[in-house]
Amino acid sequence: MLEFCQFGAGRIGAIHADNIALHSGATLRYVVDVNEAAARAMADKYGAQVVSTETALADRAVGAAIIASSTDTHADLIEAAARAGKAIFCEKPIDLSLTRVESCLEVAKEAGVPLALAFNRRFDPSFATLQRRLAEGEVGEVEMVCITSRDPAPPPIDYIKVSGGLFRDMMIHDLDMARWLLGEEPVEVAATASCLVDPAIAEAGDVDTALVTLRTASGRLCQISNSRRAAYGYDQRIEVLGSKGMLRAENHRPTTVEAATGDGVSRDKPLYFFLERYAAAYKAELDAFIDAVSSSTEPSPGGYDGHAALRLADAALQSFKEKRTVTLVW
Hints:
This protein has 13 helices and 15 strands. By secondary structure, the chain is of the alpha/beta class. It folds into two domains: 2-113, Rossmann fold; 122-282 and 308-327, 2-Layer Sandwich (Dihydrodipicolinate Reductase, domain 2), CATH 3.30.360. The strands form three sheets. The chain has a seven-stranded mixed beta sheet with strand order 12-11-7-10-9-8-15. Helix 2 (36-46) links the parallel strand 2 (26-32) and strand 3. Helix 1 (11-22) packs across helix 12, helix 4 (74-83) packs parallel to helix 5 (98-111) and helix 5 packs antiparallel against helix 13. The longest helix has 20 residues, at 303-322.
């Protein structure tokens, strides 16, 4: 039985706590959160205890730590958990500073503990199937990848102010997907962006609409389309063009019912919220982490993937600000 301590009892933390409870080989032992009421509610629900960071990490019965607290706490908690010998499952990003991420990864490496990054979209059943069939060569060599990721509405301005911006907060998921699907590291990044949804986002120093083009050393291309607004729902699509054909993963909808009448053909809008759209992915990613720890294998995606995605996000931001293509050496 793998016992967890969890940092963070908010929206994402609640998802992870539910998925621990659903796994026959795991249990939640401790909850740590600055919001004592939220921590108490979660602990009471799962028979856990509310304790301090020090108490949670000092308990040798605890084998793993979930870090689902605010971004500014991630790096410190990773280092503390690593030094305590805990396997670590951390929400993205590790930190908003590449230098801080690098020092954090070094601590985890020296401690010899597993570190998984919660890039949950790799575990979405549709996307995972697409990637598997791509790797099996069904459509030949990858030539172009198109990733569409658009939120139904922007998050609160207070969140945007501390999020690190669209490229580091929202697009970082798509940049990880791009690396995964391209099968090669992008060496050129070109970005353009605007603020078309809410002027308050621009006043907060961010953008809400962006396009990024990536190019690998062999010439493979990827285009990522992001927007903080899609009136029709949560838009999550992937298309990969290969030398022998194409693979595509479409939006998920509440039902598959389609109506055809004299007025036209209609069907349900895409699922509205990311917690609904990626419910299966959240469960699968934690199951994969538990399996990796239990079998003493390296979890994936890991710390390097978190670092690489942040490098691409920083390059995209630099490209946008400097109005030029940024070159990366890996």
